[in-house]
Design a protein that fits this description.
Layout lengths: L4 H19 L14 H13 L1 H16 L6 H11 L22
Helix pairs in contact: 2-3
């Protein structure tokens, strides 16, 4: 069974649009996000696509967030804190070893 002419031309328009976008350096990406975030993701994509100052700032901030190290242990936390201080500044972390205070549980 042959496809209706409008359906065929519609598919060709989509193909042409995607080829043109690819040639211009764009990449089609499909993501699954919570429904309440869909408009936010569209707005982010639109801002990045349009470029300009807003696109540059957003791209930089997203890159910073995406590349931030995950802090999972105390050692990770200390390494992150040390990296935020000026070079050569020494930090020492010491645990309080006092027995604490008495607590009346009655």
């Amino acid at each position: 069974m042959a496809e209706p002419a409008t359906r065929k031309t519609s598919k060709e328009r989509v193909r042409r649009h995607r080829r043109k976008a690819l040639a211009e350096g764009s990449k089609r990406v499909e993501v699954t996000v919570p429904a309440e975030d869909a408009e936010l993701i569209r707005a982010v994509a639109r801002t990045l696509r349009e470029g300009g100052k807003a696109g540059t700032v957003l791209r930089r901030r997203l890159a910073d967030l995406a590349s931030a190290p995950r802090i999972r242990t105390a050692a990770d936390l200390f390494a992150a804190l040390r990296s935020t201080f000026p070079a050569g500044m020494e930090l020492e972390f010491e645990r309080d070893r006092s027995p604490g205070r008495p607590v009346d549980l009655e």
